[in-house]
Design goal:
It contains two helices and 37 strands. It is mainly beta and 496 residues long. Strands 9, 11, 12, 13 and 15 form a five-stranded antiparallel beta sheet that branches. Strands 18, 20, 21, 22 and 24 form a five-stranded antiparallel beta sheet that branches. It starts with 12 loop residues before the first helix and ends in a 12-residue tail after the last strand.
Length: 496
């Protein structure tokens, strides 16, 4: 994602607290006293974008909204989730037509709210939350497709708008139907470029340049219409020329189901891809580096017993400007695992994702794990069930203590918390707490207590007709707070 250096005056502290998009963190070169002077304050306004859930006529989608309880918030506020076409800049309904009934009405912080939609006409949504509803507000869309291309379980976490996205793991191969969904929340049109990079470099295409996304609209762009080349593994780059958008890739397969592919974390020399299911039958790693320098990566698996090197996949060479993929097979061998990529020598920024398959013999399902940022202050997973949820946590660089809280249920139940210790270099599928007296769905929040950085993901599973449907969402920081400098602090060293 884009990060722009800010030079702030003392009066801008209030502005920083209402963005919902920014987390002001001191860069590595910042002096220690600068980091200590910044106070963590709850954000006051958050905007989330949800792509249209499915093109299938037999799809059922549920939405779950959740705001964690955050100290220091205002006592009032509101949250709403409306079709993008009905949203205006001030968060009110558009005047061109009567607004439809909201898909859900968010509940007070600490309790999830759910709503449902069916069929292929489900719109993209724009959500806004203010006051006590804003810090850490999370919306999850979970779709069940009974048959056809992409059948199985699909899940996507609604995201803030941004201007730069990388999606390694897409495809234009036979049997694949992949879309990049681009949603514009603003009153003016956005202009984006969609670039495709395959095994030999950028695919030739002029169709993907200068795509206009109208105000309050979402455009699903079929990747196979951008190039005639059939490529098994592609990296999609969405670059916004003007405006800002939300972007997600829907990767659908005729035979092995499909899921949403979220954007990879910012390009980095070291990456963590957490939460490979222990019963994964095949894992494929897709990586890409922009620029003119090749990347050489050490590949390791963080297992329950520590970091190990997969036999035959000790390193990965990623050619500059080209998408590289390698099959890791059943790399977890029946145990929880996360992939850790580090430079063998010189650090070169890389993006990466895993395509994970469960099941065999025609009853397979796929999901994706992009490289992700650490949990940070707190991470939130909105839509969970008592039996189908697996929470995976990894601490690749040092031991960490983590608090996990299960919220009240959407229809009843009492919140419960547990604390776990994740040993250095390991991954654990923790026995996450479940609300006592649970009715409905619940949310999980993950809060590091002490120690090294922690990375996480949530897997939601639902087997039907022998097909192991599942979807995986990573757990980066939920943007609940923002670092706001003191009035007398020189904040030219801070970065957005």
């Amino acid at each position: 994602m884009n990060r722009t250096t800010l030079s702030l005056l003392a009066g801008t502290a209030a502005l920083a607290a209402v963005t919902g998009f920014a987390a002001l963190d001191p860069p590595a070169a910042a002096p220690a006293h600068a980091a200590q002077a910044a106070a963590q304050l709850p954000v006051e306004r958050t905007t989330l974008l949800c792509p249209a859930p499915s093109l299938s006529d037999i799809a059922d989608t549920s939405y779950t909204s959740f705001t964690p309880v955050t100290q220091g918030t205002a006592s009032d506020g509101k949250a709403q989730l409306q079709a993008a076409s009905e949203q205006s800049a001030d968060g009110t309904s558009g005047k061109k037509k009567k607004p439809s009934k909201p898909v859900l009405t968010p509940k007070a912080p600490g309790t999830p709210a759910t709503g449902d939609t069916s069929g292929a006409d489900g719109p993209a949504y724009v959500g806004t939350a203010e006051g006590r509803y804003a810090p850490g507000w999370t919306v999850q869309a979970t779709t069940e497709v009974a048959a056809g291309t992409g059948r199985g379980l699909q899940g996507v976490t609604c995201t803030p708008a941004d201007t730069d996205f990388w999606f390694p793991g897409a495809s234009t191969a036979a049997g694949r139907t992949d879309y990049v969904h681009v949603t514009n929340p603003d009153d003016s049109a956005a202009v984006v470029d969609v670039e495709l990079y395959g095994k030999d470099g950028r695919l030739k295409s002029s169709v993907g340049e200068g795509i206009t996304v109208p105000p309050h609209a979402s455009e699903p762009v079929l990747l196979s219409t951008l190039s005639e080349e059939k490529q098994t593994d592609l990296t999609v780059h969405v670059n916004v020329r003007s405006g800002r958008v939300g972007a997600s890739v829907q990767a659908l397969d005729d035979k092995t189901g499909g899921d949403w592919l979220a954007a990879s974390a910012d390009p980095s020399g070291s990456l963590v891809l957490p939460g490979i299911p222990k019963d994964a039958t095949d894992v494929r790693l897709i990586a890409f580096t922009d620029g003119d320098t090749d990347a050489d990566l050490k590949v390791r698996l963080a297992s329950p017993d520590g970091l190990i090197t997969p036999a035959g996949n000790e390193t990965l060479h990623v050619k500059a400007g080209m998408t590289t993929a390698t099959d890791l097979g059943d790399v977890t061998r029946g145990e929880a695992g996360s992939l850790v990529l580090t430079p063998t020598d010189r650090s070169v920024p890389v993006v990466a994702a895993l395509r994970v398959t469960r099941g065999k013999n025609g009853k397979q399902e796929t999901a994706y794990i992009p490289a992700t940022a650490p949990v940070g202050t707190r991470a939130t997973s909105a839509d969970n069930s008592g039996k189908g949820t697996t929470l995976s946590l990894t601490a690749p660089t040092g031991t960490a203590k983590v608090k996990v809280t299960a919220s009240a249920g959407s229809e009843g139940g009492t919140a419960v918390s547990k604390t776990f210790t994740i040993k250095s270099g390991t991954t654990q599928d923790v026995e996450a707490p479940v609300p006592s007296g649970l009715k409905g769905t619940y949310a999980l929040t993950v809060e590091p207590v002490s120690g090294a950085p922690v990375y996480g993901s949530r897997t939601l599973s639902a087997t039907e007709d022998g097909i192991p449907g599942f979807t995986i969402q990573t757990l980066p920081d939920d943007r609940g707070t923002v670092a706001v400098p003191e009035a007398d602090q020189d904040v030219s060293v801070l970065q957005r």
